[in-house]
Amino acid sequence: MGQQYSLEEKKRAIQLFQILGHYTWVIAELGYPSRTMLHYWIKEYRRTGKIEVTNKTRRKYTVEQRKHAVEYYLSHGRSIKNTITALGYPGATLLGEWLREDLPKEQRKWSCKFNGHAIKYPPEQKAEIVQKYCSGQTPYQISKEYGICPTTVYTWKKDLLGQENFPNMSCNKSMTDAETNNQSVEELISKKEELEAKLLNLQDDIYRLQMQKDILEKATEIIKKDRGINLKNLTNKEKAILIDALRKKYRLKNLLKELEISKSSYCYQASKIQKKDKYEYLRIRIKEIFAENYCSYGYRRIYGLLKRENIFVSEKVVRRIMREEELFVYVSKQKKYSSYKGEISPEVPNLLQRNFHAEELNQKWLTDITEFHIPAGKVYLSSLIDCFDGGATSWSIGTSPDADLVNRMLDNAISTLKDDKRPIVHSDRGCHYRWPGWIARMNNAGLTRSMSKKGCSPDNSACEGFFGRLKNEMFYRKSWIGVSIDEFIKELDRYIRWYNEKRIKQSLGYLSPLEYRNKMAQCEKIATLDKSSQKCLAGMAYDDKDSKV
Q: ω before 33 within 30° of 0 (cis)?
């Protein structure tokens, strides 16, 4: 019964054959299996596409079957091949064993055995026979002279010189006998050793190149690096991850040498990777916050929101976790919508002069129109932004950038004003803000008009910034295929309400515009109560003074 090999050994041999492409090289590298067995493994793998362990046991034959096979062999020309063909059993090896046991005195033609024992030839005699073969004598001539098999001559030649055809062999008829005899067996053996050394160097090069290829593929797959990455620029942690992924296929020593990392550094990073992540919960919470807020929060706002939840970590930790989890805020530069249609009414001066800071609510308003182009059609948004907190005071959404769109927005904003509030309304020089209807509404409400310079968007940058954040966080990163106009308008309105009520800003102390307004209102109430209390205390002190007098 032949030697059994494990699944891992079988898999390694097939993989190495795919790399080297030659049976002899695989067997020389691994030291197993036989050429016949390796050929069978490769054949089965190509046929089935699977690598399986086959446990084949030798078939058992009866004594009558064995006796019948030996008798048929003796009576039908003493041919093993014909016997197996006629009977259908056994194999050539097994039948040979039966014949040697049952016919010990039977000597087959070209047998190198004497009295059942193999004749051992000294190395000097083997070299002499091979030299005669290389000098031009045929194997059959040599076999008659020395009493050996012709196949043995080929075997000894292969052991000493390899399978290459050297120029002094009889197959090269252009060589003369003098040239043939001049080349000794020692020279041929040295040439063979030189070729074997070159072969080993080529195998090493193939092994190293295949390892480099696998490292680059794993770097692309696991740590998301480009294929042209320089392995020297990788961190020790990344190198340790690659080594762990390839340790079953390559030796640790070779991987460490290729990635230029010491064994101690690798062991340190490997143990560090295996440790439990102390920021495991924090990673989950950061990803939740990022997803809940339209994937628009950077590390600063996420840090502020965590602080509000009594989770105290540094901004660097939040930034590192977001980078490791690939939580990046999408930013796209798009051509902004322009509503300028020419000079249709007298111009208005720029009262803000790019000063978008307001000390109180309803002091400075900014307005503009932007366009959304989806497969279902175009949608327009007209909004009015308060410079006090950057929140949207009023907005209107429609499918046409007409006067009704901006007038509805202005009417809604005016309805929220108290009697003593008369803010400045700043806009660009679009036709919507120069029509008689807009001007009449502004005059009736006592609002002051202000306009940017012609074609100068920075003069209204605060409002443009609101549109930019809106599109980056809500519009650009989504596919709106199959979304109707009404559905998109509802989604846009929902986002603006979320912007006012929940979206935190660093400039507001990590509060939303609505939260900031409520906080400022409470502070004003407290300040008013303090002033009234001071007045009451002052009045009481004055009454006490009069009573004393």
A: yes
Q: Per-residue pLDDT for 55 more than 60?
A: no
Question: What gap in Å lies between CA 302 and CA 510, rounded to an integer?
Answer: 9
CB atoms within 10 A of CB 399: 13
Do residues 421 and 463 both lie within one domain?
A: yes
- Return the SS3 of 378: strand
- The pLDDT tens digits for 81-136 are 788 888 888 877 788 778 878 877 654 443 444 434 455 677 777 888 888 887 77
* 290 φ/ψ angles, rounded to the nearest 5 degrees: -60, -40
pTM, two decimals, is: 0.45
Residues 112 and 125 in one domain: no
Q: How far does CA 352 lie from the centroid of its chain?
A: 50
Total domains in the chain come to 6
Report yes or no: 84 and 68 within 8 Å, Cβ to Cβ. Answer: no
Q: Are 488 and 418 found together in one domain?
A: yes
Residue 1 pLDDT: 44
**307 in the same domain as 407:** no
- The first and second tokens of residue 444, run together, are 């009736």
**d(C-alpha 138, C-alpha 546), whole Å:** 147
**What are the structure tokens assigned to 9, written together?**
């050994």
Domain range for 425? 364-503
Q: Greatest CA span in the chain, whole angstroms?
A: 157
Q: Are residues 109 and 13 in the same domain?
A: yes
Q: Is the dihedral of CA 340, 343, 345, 351 positive or negative?
A: positive
